[in-house]
Design a protein that fits this description.
By secondary structure, this protein is α/β, with parallel strands linked by helices. It has two domains: 24-235, Spore Coat Polysaccharide Biosynthesis Protein SpsA, Chain A (Alpha-Beta Complex), CATH 3.90.550; 245-312, no CATH class. It is 38% helix and 18% strand. It is built from ten helices and twelve strands. It has helices at 34-42, 62-67, 82-91, 109-120, 150-158, 193-198, 211-221, 245-263, 266-289, 293-308, and strands at residues 24-30, 50-54, 72-76, 97-101, 125-133, 144-145, 170-171, 183-184, 188-192, 225-235, 312-313, 316-317. The strands form three sheets. It has a seven-stranded mixed sheet with strand order 3-2-1-4-9-5-10, with helices on both faces. Helix 9 (266-289) runs antiparallel to helix 10 (293-308).
Length: 322
């Protein structure tokens, strides 16, 4: 796990402090992520309303963190996945605005306020997300993206997205770049609670991964839009839960396969899945050539998820959902 830098606070504009953001609650979904959550909260005000939704049945003592904060609450997510846990946090929140945050992200309070201001200032904006960056400051591939199509899948599989960054599945915008996307990550996402719930929240048929893609689809179908704040850069270490990397990569592949199968005919979904699987076969071979067996196994797990649409977490199948 890369060490994340503690970002500097956002400076006030000339002439005074930034405009006030409406009150909001931070909802964090955890799966054996106590060290990451401690790091996240250490950089935030003690009186920030926080809801921690625990998907690991309290094995790492998250309730202790809640008890130590002035305005925090603890919910048992029941181990039913990120989408269910995030929805539970939003459904039970007493606040008009909610921000979903990943345990392994390191935003400042002003980063959160900026995405909340974006939603609060535009009734047609269903959500606003920060742009996630690595520990080196590079924008992460997948901070946002577009609806999966065969053409986009082929571009991603062949690696052509590195030359044509808007042609693939996942966006990797430059800081401050103006870009239109079909969905944004939920790693640092602000929503107006009523709008989020009216849209059905995150689709709980996805244990984790692609629930953000499905939410973007629901947003567009209602004639709303999402905002990606490419000027709000939040450090993030992908994979901050206690689950093994290969396990999560298989789940990532299974979620993508199930999404494209749900919204496309078999004649379209099959080629999309095959194209992605073929692209990751190439990635497996590349990693083996580098003698990076661990990374090769992760890519192989993604292929297995794509082809079988099945994945497990903690030994339990989590993809058999209606």
């Amino acid at each position: 796990m890369s060490e994340l830098p503690q970002p500097a606070g956002r400076e006030a504009p000339p002439g005074g402090a930034p405009r006030q953001a409406p009150p909001f609650e931070l909802v964090v979904v955890s799966y054996k992520s106590r060290p990451q959550i401690e790091g996240l909260l250490a950089n935030l005000p003690d009186d920030l309303p926080v809801c921690i939704v625990d998907n690991a049945a309290g094995v790492d003592g998250l309730e202790e963190i809640v008890k130590a904060r002035a305005d925090a609450r603890y919910l048992d997510g029941g181990g039913a996945g990120f989408a269910h846990a995030a929805n539970l946090g939003a459904l039970t929140s007493p606040h008009e605005y909610v921000v979903f945050g990943n345990p392994d992200s390191r935003p400042t309070i002003e980063d959160y306020r900026e995405v909340v201001r974006t939603v609060a200032g535009d009734p047609a904006c269903a959500s606003a997300s920060a742009t996630m960056v690595s520990s080196t400051g590079a924008v992460e591939l997948g901070t946002a993206g577009w609806e999966p199509t065969l053409r986009r899948a082929l571009v991603h599989a062949a690696g052509i997205h590195k030359v044509f960054p808007r042609a693939g599945l996942f966006a990797k915008p430059q800081p401050h770049e103006v870009i239109r996307v079909d969905w944004t990550t939920g790693a640092c996402m602000a929503v107006r609670r009523d709008t989020f719930l009216a849209l059905g929240g995150f689709d709980e048929r996805y244990y984790v991964y692609n629930e953000d893609v499905a939410f973007g689809r629901a947003v567009r179908e209602r004639g709303l839009h999402q905002a990606l704040r490419t000027d709000v850069l939040v450090p993030h270490a992908s994979g901050g839960s206690g689950a093994p990397s290969a396990e999560m990569m298989r789940l990532r592949g299974a979620s993508m396969a199930r999404y494209v199968s749900r919204y496309n005919s078999a004649g379209v979904a099959g080629p999309i899945r095959f194209a992605l699987a073929l692209g990751y076969v190439t990635r497996v071979l590349q990693q083996l050539a580098k003698r990076d067996v661990g990374r090769a196994r992760e890519h192989l797990a993604y292929i297995q998820g794509l082809l079988t649409q099945k994945a497990k977490v903690g030994g339990q199948v989590v993809t058999d959902r209606a």
